[in-house]
Amino acid sequence: MPFVIHQNPNSILCAWCPMQTTLLFQKGDAASKLAVSDLNSPAVYIYDVSTGSEEPIATLTTLHTSPVVVMKFNAAVDTVISSDTKGFIEYWSSDDYKHPSGAVKFTMKLDTDLYVLAKAKTAARSLEVSKDGSQFAVFAADGRVRVWRFASGKLRRSYDESLEAAHDLQKSGAEQFVLEDIDFGRRYALDKEIRAAGDRVPASNAVFDESGNFILVPTLLGIKVINLTTSAVSRMIGKPENTERFLRIALWQGLPKKVRSSIFFPCSPLHISN
Fold it and tell me: 196-219 b/e with 16+ CB inside 10 Å = b?
């Protein structure tokens, strides 16, 4: 059965089933490359979408030993971070698809914490990179959010957002996190259904703020805003919204551009410009 990948204004027809995609270019780059992983093999295919060709310009078959479940382009250092179903995390250059030796401070992965997911026998469900490229966060299938420093590959923080941790937090009596028993029971049951559904439900993500000092995590209680320096929960967003379960976050912190507009009054010749 053929599958179609749409990348406006082009589309790519492939005979295999796509799993994850990530764009490998920034504004001003000559080539517009797209990386696509295969649902049923470890292969990652690279396409130049600017040409409209359905033939990949490169096929990466030795990066991983199992299908790649998450990929994210770290534009600050022209490097892709990818992770497979076995929990192995890899870095590779978007130019030559090799180890990005100039972008990292290690030569051997044994000197890093990039094996943490594999050791925990879990896999990434989502991956996000901080704006400056110095950190990345993984929300894993075991309910934990882990934050790495990119250059060293060392784990910076780990936050347990599993159902067991939520249950313990409810029993702790901490006012900031405790819900009414009926409300907690309903949310707990809903989260059990979400976890049981697996890939049929959109995977939760954890996103950095513009400064990289805070991370926003959707949880059973609401959206936690966590200070990465102190690990304290600085704010809880949406805790009273007991009819909603926030799963994914998109954060924009820029300033809107001032647009000149004109106001016309149809019954008057007056024309006012702002």
Answer: eeeeeeebbbbbbeeebebbbbbb
The torsion region of residue 143 among left (phi > 0), alpha (psi -120 to 50) and beta comes to left
CB 56 within 8 A of CB 38: no
CA distance 140 to 198: 11
Task: Return the closest-CA partner of residue 135 out of 120, 155, 121.
Answer: 155
> What sections of the chain are H helices per DSSP?
116-119, 163-172, 181-197
- Per residue in 116-151, pLDDT tens? 999 999 999 999 999 999 999 999 999 999 999 999
What's the angle, vertex CA 163, arms to CA 214 and CA 211, rounded to 5? 5
pLDDT digits (tens, 9 = 90+) for 22-72: 999 887 777 789 999 999 999 999 999 888 788 999 999 999 999 999 999
Task: Please give the model's pTM, rounded to 2 decimal places.
Answer: 0.87
